Amino acid sequence: MARDVNQVWNYCNDLGQQVLRREGRFMSGFDFQKYLNGASKAGLLVGSAVFQQVAEEFATRRRQFKKARLRWRVSDPKRANRSLGWIPFKARSLRYKGGQVAFQGHLLSLWDSYGLADRELGAGSISEDVRGRWFLNVTVKVQPKAKPSPKGLKGAIGADLGLKSHMTDSAGTSVDAQRFYRDLESKIATAQRAGKAHRVRALHAKVANRRKDFLHKLSTVQAYSHAAVFVGNVNAASLAKTRMAKSVLDAGWSSYRTMLKYKCDDASAWFAEVDESFSTQECNVCGTRAGPKGRAGLAVRQWTCPCCGTSHDRDVNAARNILARGLVWLENTFSAADSRSTKSAAAVNKVPGPSGLGAAAGHGRPAVGIPVL
Prior knowledge:
Elements: H1 2-23, H2 29-36, H3 48-65, E1 86-89, E2 94-97, E3 100-103, E4 106-109, E5 121-128, E6 134-140, E7 156-161, E8 165-169, E9 174-176, H4 180-193, H5 197-225, E10 228-232, H6 236-239, H7 245-251, H8 253-266, E11 270-274, E12 302-304, E13 311-313, H9 314-349, H10 357-360
Helix pairs in contact: 1-3, 2-3, 4-5, 5-8
Protein backbone atom coordinates (compact mmCIF):
# COMPACT_ATOMS: atom_id res chain seq x y z
CA MET A 1 0.00 0.00 0.00
CA ALA A 2 2.76 2.45 0.87
CA ARG A 3 4.32 1.92 -2.56
CA ASP A 4 1.01 2.80 -4.23
CA VAL A 5 0.69 5.92 -2.06
CA ASN A 6 4.18 6.98 -3.16
CA GLN A 7 3.17 6.44 -6.78
CA VAL A 8 0.10 8.68 -6.40
CA TRP A 9 2.16 11.34 -4.61
CA ASN A 10 4.77 11.38 -7.38
CA TYR A 11 2.04 11.52 -10.01
CA CYS A 12 0.53 14.60 -8.35
CA ASN A 13 3.99 16.12 -8.08
CA ASP A 14 4.67 15.65 -11.80
CA LEU A 15 1.16 16.68 -12.89
CA GLY A 16 1.33 19.83 -10.81
CA GLN A 17 4.58 20.86 -12.50
CA GLN A 18 3.16 20.30 -15.98
CA VAL A 19 0.01 22.33 -15.29
CA LEU A 20 2.07 25.12 -13.75
CA ARG A 21 4.33 25.18 -16.79
CA ARG A 22 1.47 25.20 -19.32
CA GLU A 23 -1.24 27.22 -17.60
CA GLY A 24 0.66 29.15 -14.94
CA ARG A 25 -1.55 28.03 -12.03
CA PHE A 26 -1.27 25.73 -9.06
CA MET A 27 -3.60 22.76 -8.73
CA SER A 28 -5.74 22.19 -5.65
CA GLY A 29 -6.70 18.88 -4.10
CA PHE A 30 -10.04 19.03 -5.92
CA ASP A 31 -8.26 19.52 -9.27
CA PHE A 32 -6.13 16.41 -8.72
CA GLN A 33 -9.16 14.24 -7.98
CA LYS A 34 -10.43 14.53 -11.55
CA TYR A 35 -7.23 12.89 -12.79
CA LEU A 36 -7.34 10.13 -10.15
CA ASN A 37 -10.81 8.78 -11.03
CA GLY A 38 -10.61 5.07 -11.75
CA ALA A 39 -7.10 4.68 -10.33
CA SER A 40 -8.24 1.92 -7.96
CA LYS A 41 -9.21 -0.20 -11.01
CA ALA A 42 -5.67 -0.02 -12.40
CA GLY A 43 -4.29 -2.64 -10.00
CA LEU A 44 -3.41 -0.40 -7.06
CA LEU A 45 -4.06 -1.78 -3.58
CA VAL A 46 -5.62 1.32 -2.03
CA GLY A 47 -9.01 2.81 -2.72
CA SER A 48 -10.19 6.15 -4.02
CA ALA A 49 -10.59 7.62 -0.53
CA VAL A 50 -6.86 7.20 0.08
CA PHE A 51 -6.02 8.70 -3.33
CA GLN A 52 -8.14 11.75 -2.53
CA GLN A 53 -6.46 12.17 0.84
CA VAL A 54 -2.98 11.93 -0.73
CA ALA A 55 -3.91 14.58 -3.31
CA GLU A 56 -5.31 16.91 -0.65
CA GLU A 57 -2.25 16.40 1.54
CA PHE A 58 0.08 17.12 -1.38
CA ALA A 59 -1.75 20.38 -2.21
CA THR A 60 -1.70 21.43 1.44
CA ARG A 61 2.03 20.79 1.87
CA ARG A 62 2.86 22.58 -1.37
CA ARG A 63 1.04 25.68 -0.13
CA GLN A 64 2.61 25.36 3.29
CA PHE A 65 6.20 25.25 2.02
CA LYS A 66 5.48 27.62 -0.89
CA LYS A 67 7.20 25.45 -3.48
CA ALA A 68 6.29 24.53 -7.02
CA ARG A 69 7.56 20.98 -6.53
CA LEU A 70 8.01 18.83 -3.45
CA ARG A 71 10.45 15.98 -2.93
CA TRP A 72 9.76 12.68 -4.65
CA ARG A 73 8.78 9.75 -2.49
CA VAL A 74 11.20 6.82 -3.00
CA SER A 75 9.97 3.24 -2.56
CA ASP A 76 13.19 1.33 -3.35
CA PRO A 77 14.43 -0.19 -0.03
CA LYS A 78 18.02 -0.23 -1.33
CA ARG A 79 18.10 3.54 -1.78
CA ALA A 80 19.59 5.60 1.03
CA ASN A 81 16.88 8.24 0.59
CA ARG A 82 13.99 5.77 0.79
CA SER A 83 10.80 7.36 2.08
CA LEU A 84 9.26 5.87 5.20
CA GLY A 85 5.89 4.24 4.72
CA TRP A 86 2.90 6.55 4.97
CA ILE A 87 -0.77 5.78 4.19
CA PRO A 88 -3.27 8.58 4.91
CA PHE A 89 -6.98 7.89 5.18
CA LYS A 90 -10.29 9.59 5.84
CA ALA A 91 -12.72 8.79 8.62
CA ARG A 92 -14.94 6.62 6.44
CA SER A 93 -12.03 4.31 5.53
CA LEU A 94 -11.45 3.03 9.08
CA ARG A 95 -13.63 0.91 11.36
CA TYR A 96 -12.89 -0.61 14.75
CA LYS A 97 -14.20 -4.15 15.06
CA GLY A 98 -13.49 -6.83 17.65
CA GLY A 99 -10.15 -5.52 18.84
CA GLN A 100 -8.95 -4.97 15.28
CA VAL A 101 -9.06 -2.13 12.79
CA ALA A 102 -10.65 -2.77 9.39
CA PHE A 103 -8.94 -0.76 6.66
CA GLN A 104 -9.32 -1.22 2.90
CA GLY A 105 -10.50 -4.81 3.30
CA HIS A 106 -7.67 -5.73 5.70
CA LEU A 107 -7.95 -6.47 9.41
CA LEU A 108 -5.04 -4.88 11.31
CA SER A 109 -4.20 -6.14 14.79
CA LEU A 110 -2.95 -3.51 17.20
CA TRP A 111 -2.18 -2.90 20.83
CA ASP A 112 -5.10 -0.70 21.89
CA SER A 113 -3.84 1.24 24.91
CA TYR A 114 -6.35 4.11 24.58
CA GLY A 115 -9.70 2.31 24.38
CA LEU A 116 -10.56 3.00 20.74
CA ALA A 117 -13.73 0.92 21.04
CA ASP A 118 -15.31 3.74 23.09
CA ARG A 119 -14.28 6.52 20.69
CA GLU A 120 -15.47 7.80 17.34
CA LEU A 121 -12.55 7.43 14.94
CA GLY A 122 -11.66 10.26 12.57
CA ALA A 123 -9.07 10.83 9.85
CA GLY A 124 -5.44 9.88 10.29
CA SER A 125 -2.63 7.84 8.80
CA ILE A 126 -0.63 4.63 9.10
CA SER A 127 3.08 5.42 9.28
CA GLU A 128 6.39 3.60 9.52
CA ASP A 129 9.37 4.53 11.68
CA VAL A 130 13.06 4.06 10.89
CA ARG A 131 13.11 0.62 12.53
CA GLY A 132 10.34 -0.74 10.30
CA ARG A 133 7.57 -0.59 12.90
CA TRP A 134 4.11 0.57 11.83
CA PHE A 135 1.84 2.84 13.86
CA LEU A 136 -1.80 3.88 13.57
CA ASN A 137 -2.28 7.64 13.99
CA VAL A 138 -5.94 8.50 14.30
CA THR A 139 -7.94 11.44 15.62
CA VAL A 140 -10.80 10.94 18.06
CA LYS A 141 -13.50 13.30 19.30
CA VAL A 142 -13.41 14.35 22.94
CA GLN A 143 -15.74 16.59 24.87
CA PRO A 144 -14.17 19.93 25.91
CA LYS A 145 -14.05 20.61 29.63
CA ALA A 146 -14.65 23.91 31.37
CA LYS A 147 -11.56 25.67 32.72
CA PRO A 148 -11.46 27.41 36.11
CA SER A 149 -11.95 31.15 36.49
CA PRO A 150 -8.86 33.25 37.28
CA LYS A 151 -10.59 34.61 40.40
CA GLY A 152 -9.36 32.58 43.33
CA LEU A 153 -7.26 30.38 41.06
CA LYS A 154 -5.16 27.96 43.11
CA GLY A 155 -2.40 25.62 42.05
CA ALA A 156 -0.84 27.74 39.28
CA ILE A 157 2.87 27.36 38.60
CA GLY A 158 5.48 29.00 36.42
CA ALA A 159 8.29 26.97 34.86
CA ASP A 160 11.72 28.16 33.79
CA LEU A 161 13.46 25.87 31.30
CA GLY A 162 17.22 25.38 31.34
CA LEU A 163 20.12 23.10 30.48
CA LYS A 164 21.58 22.36 33.91
CA SER A 165 18.11 21.92 35.35
CA HIS A 166 15.56 20.83 32.80
CA MET A 167 12.83 22.71 34.63
CA THR A 168 12.56 24.81 37.79
CA ASP A 169 9.10 25.83 38.94
CA SER A 170 7.88 28.72 41.04
CA ALA A 171 7.49 26.49 44.09
CA GLY A 172 11.24 25.84 44.13
CA THR A 173 11.10 22.32 42.70
CA SER A 174 13.92 21.56 40.28
CA VAL A 175 14.13 18.66 37.82
CA ASP A 176 17.65 17.75 36.75
CA ALA A 177 18.46 17.73 33.05
CA GLN A 178 18.87 14.26 31.56
CA ARG A 179 21.66 13.11 29.27
CA PHE A 180 19.75 10.94 26.83
CA TYR A 181 22.04 11.39 23.84
CA ARG A 182 25.34 11.90 25.64
CA ASP A 183 24.92 8.66 27.61
CA LEU A 184 24.84 6.67 24.36
CA GLU A 185 27.01 8.97 22.24
CA SER A 186 30.09 6.73 22.47
CA LYS A 187 28.11 3.62 21.48
CA ILE A 188 26.55 5.47 18.54
CA ALA A 189 29.98 6.60 17.36
CA THR A 190 31.33 3.03 17.62
CA ALA A 191 28.43 1.63 15.61
CA GLN A 192 28.83 4.35 12.97
CA ARG A 193 32.54 3.62 12.53
CA ALA A 194 31.74 -0.09 12.21
CA GLY A 195 29.14 0.64 9.53
CA LYS A 196 26.31 -1.02 11.47
CA ALA A 197 23.38 1.02 10.23
CA HIS A 198 20.74 -1.08 11.99
CA ARG A 199 22.56 -0.71 15.32
CA VAL A 200 22.80 3.06 14.82
CA ARG A 201 19.07 3.32 14.16
CA ALA A 202 18.30 1.22 17.22
CA LEU A 203 20.44 3.42 19.45
CA HIS A 204 18.91 6.62 18.13
CA ALA A 205 15.45 5.13 18.68
CA LYS A 206 16.45 4.30 22.24
CA VAL A 207 17.55 7.89 22.83
CA ALA A 208 14.26 9.23 21.42
CA ASN A 209 12.17 6.77 23.43
CA ARG A 210 13.95 7.62 26.70
CA ARG A 211 13.50 11.34 26.09
CA LYS A 212 9.84 10.93 25.15
CA ASP A 213 9.15 8.76 28.23
CA PHE A 214 10.76 11.34 30.54
CA LEU A 215 8.90 14.29 29.01
CA HIS A 216 5.56 12.46 29.01
CA LYS A 217 5.82 11.55 32.69
CA LEU A 218 6.90 15.04 33.74
CA SER A 219 4.28 16.87 31.67
CA THR A 220 1.49 14.54 32.82
CA VAL A 221 2.21 15.19 36.49
CA GLN A 222 2.32 18.95 35.99
CA ALA A 223 -0.77 19.20 33.78
CA TYR A 224 -3.02 17.11 36.01
CA SER A 225 -1.73 18.54 39.31
CA HIS A 226 -2.18 22.26 38.65
CA ALA A 227 -4.96 24.59 37.55
CA ALA A 228 -2.62 26.65 35.34
CA VAL A 229 0.87 26.10 33.91
CA PHE A 230 2.93 28.95 32.45
CA VAL A 231 6.22 28.34 30.64
CA GLY A 232 8.82 30.76 29.30
CA ASN A 233 8.99 31.16 25.53
CA VAL A 234 12.67 30.29 25.17
CA ASN A 235 13.63 30.13 21.49
CA ALA A 236 14.91 26.57 21.10
CA ALA A 237 15.35 26.90 17.33
CA SER A 238 17.80 29.79 17.69
CA LEU A 239 19.77 28.13 20.48
CA ALA A 240 20.01 24.98 18.36
CA LYS A 241 22.25 26.95 15.97
CA THR A 242 24.82 27.75 18.66
CA ARG A 243 27.54 25.71 20.35
CA MET A 244 24.92 24.48 22.81
CA ALA A 245 22.95 22.76 20.04
CA LYS A 246 23.53 19.21 21.25
CA SER A 247 22.33 19.97 24.78
CA VAL A 248 19.39 22.06 23.57
CA LEU A 249 18.13 19.36 21.21
CA ASP A 250 18.66 16.70 23.86
CA ALA A 251 16.49 18.67 26.32
CA GLY A 252 13.46 18.57 24.02
CA TRP A 253 11.95 21.90 25.12
CA SER A 254 9.60 22.21 22.16
CA SER A 255 8.23 18.68 22.61
CA TYR A 256 7.79 19.31 26.32
CA ARG A 257 5.75 22.48 25.74
CA THR A 258 3.63 20.75 23.10
CA MET A 259 2.86 17.93 25.53
CA LEU A 260 1.95 20.41 28.24
CA LYS A 261 -0.40 22.26 25.91
CA TYR A 262 -2.61 19.35 24.90
CA LYS A 263 -2.47 17.68 28.31
CA CYS A 264 -3.58 20.89 30.01
CA ASP A 265 -6.50 21.05 27.58
CA ASP A 266 -7.46 17.51 28.53
CA ALA A 267 -7.06 18.25 32.26
CA SER A 268 -9.11 21.52 32.05
CA ALA A 269 -6.05 23.52 33.07
CA TRP A 270 -4.79 26.79 31.64
CA PHE A 271 -1.54 26.83 29.66
CA ALA A 272 0.38 29.67 28.05
CA GLU A 273 3.89 30.51 26.88
CA VAL A 274 4.77 33.92 28.28
CA ASP A 275 7.58 36.33 27.51
CA GLU A 276 10.56 35.47 29.70
CA SER A 277 12.65 38.53 28.82
CA PHE A 278 14.62 39.79 31.86
CA SER A 279 12.88 37.22 34.07
CA THR A 280 16.21 36.29 35.70
CA GLN A 281 17.15 39.94 36.34
CA GLU A 282 13.90 41.26 37.81
CA CYS A 283 13.20 40.80 41.49
CA ASN A 284 9.89 38.97 41.85
CA VAL A 285 9.17 40.88 45.09
CA CYS A 286 9.73 44.54 44.21
CA GLY A 287 10.18 44.33 40.42
CA THR A 288 13.59 46.02 40.37
CA ARG A 289 15.81 44.89 37.50
CA ALA A 290 18.98 44.46 39.53
CA GLY A 291 19.95 40.85 38.87
CA PRO A 292 23.14 39.57 37.19
CA LYS A 293 23.43 40.66 33.57
CA GLY A 294 25.38 39.58 30.49
CA ARG A 295 27.42 36.46 29.90
CA ALA A 296 29.45 37.07 33.03
CA GLY A 297 26.25 36.95 35.06
CA LEU A 298 25.31 33.49 33.80
CA ALA A 299 27.63 31.94 36.41
CA VAL A 300 25.85 33.78 39.24
CA ARG A 301 23.18 31.43 40.58
CA GLN A 302 22.36 33.30 43.81
CA TRP A 303 21.91 37.06 44.22
CA THR A 304 20.35 39.58 46.60
CA CYS A 305 18.12 42.44 45.54
CA PRO A 306 19.73 45.77 46.58
CA CYS A 307 16.31 47.46 46.96
CA CYS A 308 14.29 45.05 49.10
CA GLY A 309 17.10 42.79 50.35
CA THR A 310 15.45 39.58 49.19
CA SER A 311 17.81 36.69 48.40
CA HIS A 312 17.04 34.91 45.15
CA ASP A 313 17.86 31.67 43.43
CA ARG A 314 18.31 32.58 39.78
CA ASP A 315 16.01 29.89 38.33
CA VAL A 316 13.34 30.08 41.04
CA ASN A 317 13.16 33.86 40.68
CA ALA A 318 12.72 33.51 36.90
CA ALA A 319 9.96 30.92 37.40
CA ARG A 320 8.10 33.21 39.80
CA ASN A 321 8.32 36.11 37.35
CA ILE A 322 6.96 33.82 34.63
CA LEU A 323 4.09 32.85 36.93
CA ALA A 324 3.26 36.50 37.64
CA ARG A 325 3.27 37.37 33.94
CA GLY A 326 1.13 34.34 33.18
CA LEU A 327 -1.48 35.39 35.76
CA VAL A 328 -1.53 38.89 34.26
CA TRP A 329 -2.10 37.37 30.81
CA LEU A 330 -4.93 35.23 32.16
CA GLU A 331 -6.58 38.19 33.86
CA ASN A 332 -6.33 40.27 30.70
CA THR A 333 -7.79 37.44 28.66
CA PHE A 334 -10.85 37.24 30.90
CA SER A 335 -11.20 41.03 31.05
CA ALA A 336 -11.17 41.25 27.24
CA ALA A 337 -13.75 38.46 27.00
CA ASP A 338 -15.99 40.18 29.55
CA SER A 339 -15.78 43.51 27.74
CA ARG A 340 -16.69 41.87 24.41
CA SER A 341 -19.67 40.11 25.95
CA THR A 342 -20.80 43.35 27.63
CA LYS A 343 -20.63 45.26 24.35
CA SER A 344 -22.52 42.50 22.55
CA ALA A 345 -25.23 42.48 25.18
CA ALA A 346 -25.48 46.28 25.03
CA ALA A 347 -25.79 46.21 21.25
CA VAL A 348 -28.54 43.59 21.41
CA ASN A 349 -30.49 45.35 24.17
CA LYS A 350 -30.09 48.87 22.72
CA VAL A 351 -33.43 50.54 21.91
CA PRO A 352 -33.30 52.06 18.40
CA GLY A 353 -33.76 55.83 18.29
CA PRO A 354 -35.64 57.89 15.75
CA SER A 355 -32.82 57.74 13.23
CA GLY A 356 -31.66 54.24 14.13
CA LEU A 357 -32.37 50.80 12.78
CA GLY A 358 -36.07 51.07 13.58
CA ALA A 359 -36.45 54.12 11.34
CA ALA A 360 -34.57 52.44 8.52
CA ALA A 361 -36.86 49.44 8.78
CA GLY A 362 -39.96 51.60 8.58
CA HIS A 363 -40.76 51.72 12.28
CA GLY A 364 -40.85 55.04 14.12
CA ARG A 365 -40.91 58.59 12.90
CA PRO A 366 -38.08 59.51 10.44
CA ALA A 367 -35.80 62.37 11.44
CA VAL A 368 -36.05 64.04 8.04
CA GLY A 369 -38.30 63.59 5.06
CA ILE A 370 -41.93 64.31 4.24
CA PRO A 371 -43.55 66.13 7.15
CA VAL A 372 -46.31 64.32 8.94
CA LEU A 373 -49.68 65.90 8.06
